[in-house]
Amino acid sequence: MGWPGHAPYELAPEAGKRLHWLRRRLLSWFARNGRSFLWREPDRTPYEVVVAEVLLQRTTAVGVARAYSGFIEHFPSWTSLSQAPLECLESALRPLGLWRQKTLAFQSLAQSIEANGGAIPRTRTELERLRGIGPYTASAVLAIVYGRAEPLLDVNMARLLVRFLGSSEGAEASPKRTLHALALRLVRGKRSLEANWAALDFGALVCRARRPLCPECPLRTRCQYARSLKLQPTPSADVLSG
Ligand code: SF4
Fold it and tell me: What domains does the chain contain, in order, with CATH numbers?
């Protein structure tokens, strides 16, 4: 599938090979270092997944982790959410920022899903019609609730791809479409969700926006950005990259 609204994009074979290598390294790193969040646990319900993804919009996972279980205890279902007084919802959301927008989004979302018999839509088009669900959250719902190989292309994953691969063919003319194609190649196949979480966590913890941990990064031997810095191998990095 291409970036929504665009024709499919063909990756150069070299980019495909490098992404294959990147995926293997990320999965191996994730097995030892991945972050553990309640909303990633296997027994989570579709309701809990959607709530987490809306809470995560434009805020940090660490901040959401502090508020998530209390929110779910307070509002355990679409019904409780749709019937909650606005001031209750507002006070639960206030610590996370954007609380007015999120309050209205949750209320509208809960009412729409209740009107749909409690079922969460299964297509991107239907999902994006709902208030509070944009392209990223739709991808997350399709990936986590319905097990589709959808890339969760956020700033962390985008930064990692751009730094690791350097400039890609077609990136200047259509950066969004190119990035989406690269991200899709990274996560498609088995263990798609793990590959997504691995890229998100790696971008947040190692390939950080400021001061990325290049000298000890397990990807640095093939990373374009690290090559441009002319990093020398270090024993600790070799151990990590094993
Ligand atoms: S070597 Fe640096 S820029 Fe490259 S992936 Fe690792 S942390 Fe990011």
Answer: 13-33+151-240 (1.10.1670.10), 38-144 (1.10.340.30)
